């Protein structure tokens, strides 16, 4: 049976051309080795090849998408989710430290120890204030760990090309990455919810709203993670930018205190940070009677920020990965 090069215009032919003349086969380019045999080799191939393909749906024949685009997209999303699971299992010790041990220390020290000396009105005192903030930190950090692992490994080890060469659209790749970040954020947040129940004896009064706030927050910070990682020239610089943003949003975004404790101008600045809406939404789910930002306002803020950020993420993703140049 012939190879992809025997069938010009096919998807396999596009992969053949990319492997031969793309970055993986850059050593065969005539500009690097202008020997006569190299020029003759290119001359033999030129009538049978296509230009170097761009990644995405436009490079694949229409009959391929008409036959099973939906099934291919679903299989691709499941494969990427399974990849995240395998990576988490491969580094299970680090995963347990990040998901279980670190938030447990935060909850015990700030909720159980420090909470005894900080006078806060309410049944559970300062523990009811800090626990939603710790859950918000898990919601914020987990999507970046998942998506950042994919993007950074794709940059340093060139593994992202394997996903980009799949017979799916770029938006399918984007949706798969966002879904992976949302799943990671939801799972990590639910683990912290269980830890808050075991350590501080806190249970949410409105579990449905808690889940809604966690999903919205995880989706929002999946978008933020992609923008921060893909907008700079190198994704490792984006990691530094995200660490600075995390510091600002952690200490000024109502994670260790409620919005009701702030006074102007800090209360105005806190409204610019998305962690404020996640933390206050979770506090509304845990203790509706305590002072906090209105639950509907918190959820509306998350949705509005996500709506504004979604087209920006789509543009950055397609601009950076539509013609993979790393």
Largest sheet: none
Q: What portion of residues belong to β-strands?
A: under 5%
As residue ranges, the low-confidence spans are: 1-53, 57-67
The whole-angstrom Rg is: 24 Å
Proportion of helical residues: 55-70%
Topology:
Layout: H1 11-21, H2 36-45, H3 62-90, H4 92-113, H5 127-156, H6 160-164, H7 170-200, H8 207-230, H9 235-252, H10 266-270, H11 274-286, H12 295-321
Helix pairs in contact: 3-7, 4-5, 4-7, 5-7, 5-8, 5-9, 5-11, 7-8, 8-9, 8-11, 8-12, 11-12
Q: How would you characterize this protein structure?
A:
The chain folds into two domains: 8-48, no CATH class; 74-321, no CATH class. Helix content is 69%, strand content 0%. With 326 residues, the protein is mainly alpha-helical. The relative contact order is 0.11. The chain has helices at residues 11-21, 36-45, 62-90, 92-113, 127-156, 160-164, 170-200, 207-230, 235-252, 266-270, 274-286, 295-321.
Quick overview of this protein structure:
The protein is 69% helix and 0% strand. The protein has 326 residues and is mainly alpha-helical.
Jot down its keywords:
69% helix; 326 residues
